[in-house]
Amino acid sequence: MAVAVYAPASIGNLGVGFDILGAALKPIDGSLLGDVVEVDDSISGEFELTASGRFAHKLPDDPKQNILYDCFVGIQTLLAEQGTHVGAVKMHLHKNLPIGSGLGSSASSIVAAVAALNQFFGSPLNEEAQLRLMGDLEGQISGSIHYDNVAPCFVGGIQLMTELDHKLCSTLPSPKSWYWCSAYPGITVSTAEARSILPAHYSKADIIKHGRLLANFVHALYAGDDKLAVTMMEDVIAEPYRKVLLPGFESARQALLKLGALAVGISGSGPTLFAVCDDISVAKQCDAYLAKHYLQNEDGFSHICRIDEAGVANVEIQSETTHS
Ligand SMILES: Nc1ncnc2c1ncn2[C@@H]1O[C@H](COP(=O)(O)OP(=O)(O)OP(=O)(O)O)[C@@H](O)[C@H]1O
Ligand SMILES: N[C@@H](CCO)C(=O)O
């Protein structure tokens, strides 16, 4: 039976917590900010993939260069190791997230595809096995395995990576009052390149500071001290080196803080910027500022979001996700 799965956009690194903290996003206007993958049918020939959606034209032309093909091969291989042999399938990707955006675009495709394929084949893989495969596939793209997009995208909420064999991540409490303004300017930053510009080593002072920020952030979330939590959202690992890749980031940050945003950071490897606000009128002003000043072309967009606590979700195959 055909399956259709939605996987939300996500922020990797919440200012603090490079590669080990991530959050799933849900626009408050109810729009779907994430990819949808359909597995239509078992077929006798070769793997088939079609794509539609706002950013489908940016995908590789060759279906076998699409990460969905690797998702299929990954599941096929795991199942073969368990003695189950599955044939080719027909898939469709509704590509709603821009590639190289900092919104976890490849993670969204991977999570939706692995979850959809797993369901299509009768759910042979448990959550942990699916998530491990998702991390491996994300690592193929970015050059090293990191779960901070795939984990929140799959499980929902704010996730802290544990990376233990039996438990890859833990859900942290999400401050209920926070709005996350998220603005994609319309240009592309490659995650692999944004990782390669980071230093190979950090100073003792930076390591101590990052440890202090991360520990206090997690403590504050559990203590329900949102003010302390937001004060800890400072990036000493990536932002100082990456902000040169984001035109207008520094001036936007200053303007957003003046408007009343509590924290501003780079979403994943950028160029999407996020701003945390605890007041809807401030969030609306920040959103309007970002739409006017941070977007660079017609591909850009800005949303006011909450944390998506659900993560991956089955959706109806309907006109929005169907294809010709
Ligand atoms: N379904 C897919 N979705 C996104 N990227 C894909 C997909 N299939 C193949 N790719 C390729 O994977 C690479 C993704 O690059 P990159 O990791 O920089 O982007 P991303 O995952 O979209 O980034 P971000 O997490 O910042 O949104 C691109 O070269 C793109 O062509
Ligand atoms: N933690 C990753 C997220 C990439 O989206 C990075 O910042 O490189």
SSE inventory with pairings:
Blueprint (H helix, E strand, L loop, with lengths): L2 E6 L1 E3 L8 E7 L6 E9 L5 E5 L14 H15 L7 E6 L10 H16 L6 H16 L7 H6 L2 E7 L2 E6 L6 E6 L6 H6 L7 H20 L2 H6 L7 H4 L6 H11 L3 E4 L6 E5 L2 H14 L7 E7 L5 E2 L10
Parallel strand pairs: 5-6
Antiparallel strand pairs: 1-4, 1-13, 2-3, 3-7, 3-12, 4-6, 7-8, 9-11, 9-12, 10-11
The site of L-homoserine has 15 residues, from helix 5.
Structure description:
The protein has 324 residues and is of the alpha+beta class. It folds into two domains: 3-173 and 309-314, Ribosomal Protein S5, domain 2 (2-Layer Sandwich), CATH 3.30.230; 179-304, 2-Layer Sandwich (Alpha-Beta Plaits). It is built from ten helices and 13 strands. It has helices spanning 67-81, 105-120, 127-142, 150-155, 191-196, 204-223, 226-231, 239-242, 249-259, 280-293, and strands spanning 3-8, 10-12, 21-27, 34-42, 48-52, 89-94, 158-164, 167-172, 179-184, 263-266, 273-277, 301-307, 313-314. Strands 2, 3, 7, 8, 9, 10, 11 and 12 form an eight-stranded antiparallel β-sheet that branches. Helix 2 (105-120) packs antiparallel against helix 3. The longest helix is centred in the middle third of the chain and has 20 residues, at 204-223. The mean pLDDT is 94. Bound molecules: adenosine-5'-triphosphate and L-homoserine (HSE). L-homoserine binds at residues 12-13, 18-19, 102, 104, 146, 148-149, 191, 194-195, 238, 268-269. L-homoserine binds next to helix 5. Its EC number is 2.7.1.39. Pfam families: GHMP_kinases_C (PF08544), GHMP_kinases_N (PF00288). This is Homoserine kinase. Residues 218-285 form the GHMP kinase C-terminal domain.
